[in-house]
Sequence to fold (119 residues):
Amino acid sequence: MPLLDDDLRAAVVCDLTTTGRVSREARTVEVWFAAVGDRAYILAGGRERAHWVQNLRADPRVTLRIAGRRFAGQAAVIEGTPDDPTAREAIAAKYGTTGLKGWLRDSLPVAIDLDGEDG
Fold:
């Protein structure tokens, strides 16, 4: 049974928590996401400049909080991999493309493989 049910997948946003690469403190940002099975996809419009991307590159262990529930996972940048188009298509299917075509095309795709519910 998947960790994320239809209601969780339909949530508009989630909170992504990474560990600060310098401070080692928890850092949380609100982001759009789309989930396929137990994998969540996020696009970083700021690409490598986004601090959360730099943080997950240093420590890929992250948590997602969706509708009040927390899930632990492992994050990875997936640009240029077979999952790259899946991430962009899943986000486009969830949020639409009106006014977002450039962002959908140019953003850095990240996948988070969810390990389980966290506390």
Remarks:
- The chain has a mean pLDDT of 95.
